[in-house]
Amino acid sequence: MVVLAGAQGPELTPPARADETTPKSTSPAGERKAPQIDAARAFGYLTKICDIGPRISGSNGMDRQQQLIAEHFGKLKAQVRFQSFDAPHPQTRTPVRMNNMIVSWDPQATERVLIACHYDTRPRPDRDANQQLALRGTFLGANDGASGVALLMEMAHHMPEIRPKYGVDFVFFDGEELVYHPADPYFLGSEYFAREYRDKPPAYKYHYGVVVDMIGDKDLQLFLERNSMDYAPELTRSIWKKAKELNVREFIGREKHDVRDDHLALNEIAKIPACDIIDFNYDHWHTTKDVPANCSGASLAKVARVLLAWLEDVPDPSQKPEKKRPR
Description:
Elements: E1 2-4, E2 12-13, E3 27-29, E4 32-34, H1 39-51, H2 60-75, E5 79-88, E6 95-105, E7 111-118, H3 131-136, H4 142-158, E8 167-173, H5 188-199, E9 205-213, E10 222-224, H6 226-231, H7 233-245, E11 251-255, E12 258-260, H8 263-268, E13 274-278, H9 297-311
Parallel strand pairs: 7-8, 7-9, 9-13, 10-11
Antiparallel strand pairs: 1-12, 2-5, 3-4, 5-6, 6-8
Helix pairs in contact: 1-4, 1-9, 4-9, 7-9
């Protein structure tokens, strides 16, 4: 993602090639019981992803991560599809095979929402204070990459327990930051996904989109993101309202940061009202210190709890159609 200071595609191939049963909860959420999120298991998923190593678009590490994701969600009875396309490598211009992954719950539903994350890692830790590491160090992307994947992997255990208002897709965007130079293009996967949704409309409609990014920080602080409030204020407020109802205080009802992230393609190209849930108060962004030790399963569990509750209480888009807020 880029911070400013202050769909189904054409041919979706079947998956190429997790685990325990979900404990039931006794925690109240209004009149219904909420799932008991397993913070340790969520953190285990984050660690397992990072154990693969860097997951740069088109790399062996990315291939291994795709296999892990496909197996995990397949075993939990979700439909898993790949949306493949090629993009030029920013340095060599040779084609890089990209794969967005789409995990569907209740795939027959024609009214849907999506929850998305990027799952590629930046090629190098270019903001590291050590210049040699910035050029040649290893970037694991525990928070910036793995946290969103781990969140959705944990949420998958609880999808059969809840009653979502609409069909739900988990979408993993490739090529969010195959970036070696600041001028290189970002958001390759989300822009492709959005163009396909716009140009080849599927038999279903997305009412809303939610992007999660860097939600594993130990000191989690989730402020309202300004572009989200401009494009999708009702959606954004509904999630923070749900967090307040659940007493999840890490969702802070004040605006902070303009973030250019995958939600912009959903809003601007696909015309899907979308927001970004992101903690940009993270000292280890794009450094060699973005490792599991600086992340927390408790943070993942809190975000999962809010989103699972929100899926049962998504606002009716016909009541208050989203309109872009003037700046």
